[in-house]
Amino acid sequence: MTPISALSYKGINYIHLDNLPHDQRTQIDEWMPAVEFIKIKMAETVIDHCVNYQDYLHWFENFYSDEGDLHTQI
Question: Tens-of-pLDDT digits for all 74 residues of the chain?
């Protein structure tokens, strides 16, 4: 499996966690502290539950497991 592509807005490369496959969204939610999530304001709209793309890539390359939920692996 390959990582999803970054979205970009005003020079900020990010991903919206709602766009991730369910297993990735669940695992990154469990791994990443909530304070690391960012919000992107576009005109009058605020998109929350986003992360910096570099943080996502780091997680994907070092921690993501496509073997299923982390709890079921133990």
Answer: 899 999 999 999 999 999 999 999 999 999 999 899 999 999 999 999 999 999 999 999 999 988 754 454 44
Closest of 54, 42, 47, 46 to residue 17, by C-alpha:
47
Spatial strand order of the sheet with 45-52 comes to: 7-9, 12-16, 45-52, 38-42
How many CB atoms lie under 10 A from the CB of residue 18?
Answer: 10
Q: How far apart are CA 39 and CA 36, in angstroms?
A: 10
